[in-house]
Amino acid sequence: MAAALMDELMEAILLRISSDDLAGLVRAALVCKRWCRIISNPGFRHRFRELHPRPAMLGFLRNQGTVSSFVPTSSFRPPRCDGTAKFKTLIKCYTHATRRNFPTIDARHGRVLLHSVSWKLGENPLKNPFVVWDPIAGERRELPLLPWSSNPYSWNAAVLCASTGACNHLDCRHGPFLVVLVGTDQEGMFACVYSSEAAAWSERTSAHYPGHEIILMPSALVGNALYFMFWYSESILKYDLGTHEMTVIPVPVECSFRRVVLMTRDDGELGLAYMENLRLYLWSMVECPDDEENVEWAERKVIELRTLLPDEALSADSLDVAGFADGASVIFVRTDGGLFTIDLESYRVTRVCGEGWYYGNFPYVGFCTPALEAASTIVGPATGTSNI
Q1: What range(s) does the F-box domain occupy (predicted)?
Q2: How far apart are the first and last CA of the chain?
Q3: Long-range interactions of 133-136: CB distance < 8 A, separation 24+
Q4: Is the dihedral of CA 354, 357, 358, 360 positive or negative?
Q5: Strand, coil or helix: what is 195?
Q6: How far, in Å, CA of 176 to CA of 384, rounded?
Q7: What SS3 state is found at 340?
């Protein structure tokens, strides 16, 4: 009875190891056989995730030209990636027996959406395949080509769990997923959805051409809708996953012609962030119940960056928003001194990269607990063996 009580007390302590320091679980499992047995228990992993419902930002993917790289912000490293750079891992894979670069298009629910790049100038980009990558398992799935060919004026795409409304996304990497493609061409605005369950693309749906182009920057998922930004931050494209309808939403006049990052707020509203005069402005959208096509915007918070960022980073000419980690409530800020993250709950600032310039920045957020799997394979220090 005393031993059982001691195990319960130790588990309660070990469960409180921070999800940002999962390597601590491995170190704890190496202390003694008792701790190793507790951590390797199948129920421990489930209780650990329940106690730490907020996913961790494991790293981020950045596009530089046509090359995408994974920059870790934790102890996690993707398996079976090419490159051995100290701070980033280049992402390449084989497609149609041809080795190509794969810029990142989106990252969500433990998956990353990549798009094959051809070196032929003027080639229709949508004739090249998309690839869905699971960085934790190191698995890639090439999607079939689109059933129609249209050279787009602009386009963007998003990957997400197929059970958005009924899933807590704690561990849905192995479940079905969707890829939503939106764009503009000579026929107007279009959308098409790939379903992993059907292993096929849907029919193309169309809408009126809005007169401006979609930008290849991270989208936002709020409820049952995806949101994509247009160039010059003039408006936002809303794609309803249930009705498959597309709607153009105006943004606040304060955001026009600024660099704007879309956000998913903790209260379930669509948010956006932009920078002005060393201040970070956070807004949220409020739908009008009497008229679903009209929306209102409200300024929710202004964060003074002079008191958060180091002095060498405070240059108004270079300071700008650079991304948002959905689920982790972390925003990226680009400066001349590098790339920083700001935790919007604790206001903790972290320098995550020495290079501030980039094209495309996609945070990878997930519940990766490789330390739990590693701990379950540890025999224990008493035997003098370990396979980690």
Answers
A1: 1-51
A2: 33
A3: 133/91, 133/93, 134/110, 134/173, 135/58, 135/70, 135/78, 135/364, 136/76, 136/78, 136/110, 136/173, 136/366, 136/368, 136/370
A4: positive
A5: strand
A6: 42
A7: strand
Element (H, E) at 294: strand 291-304
* Residue at token pair 């102890």: 75
Q: Comparing C-alpha atoms, which of 173, 159, 156 is closest to residue 360?
A: 156
- At 152-207, the pLDDT tens digits run 999 999 999 988 666 666 667 778 999 999 999 988 999 999 999 999 999 999 99
Return the CATH number of the domain spanning residue range 54-372: 2.120.10.80
> Length of the chain, please?
388
Question: Which whole-number Å values give the CA distances from 294 to 231, 234, 268, 289, 290, in the listed order?
Answer: 21, 15, 18, 9, 9
* Every domain of the chain and the residues it spans: 2-46, 54-372
Both tokens of 317, joined, read: 């000419």
- Of 42, 231, 76, the C-alpha closest to 153 is 231
54 in Cβ contact with 327 (< 8 Å): yes
Q: Residue 81 is encoded by which pair of tokens?
A: 């990636």
Q: Regarding beta strands 92-95 and 98-101, do their DSSP bridges make them parallel or antiparallel, or are they unpaired?
A: antiparallel
Tokens of 37: 């047995």
List residues bridging with 284 in a β-sheet. Answer: 271, 298
- 350's tokens: 């972290």
Among candidate residues 312, 155, 168, the one with its CA nearest the CA of residue 230: 155
pTM above 0.90, yes or no: no
Q: Look up residue 266 and give its amino acid.
A: D
Bridge partners for 240 per DSSP:
225
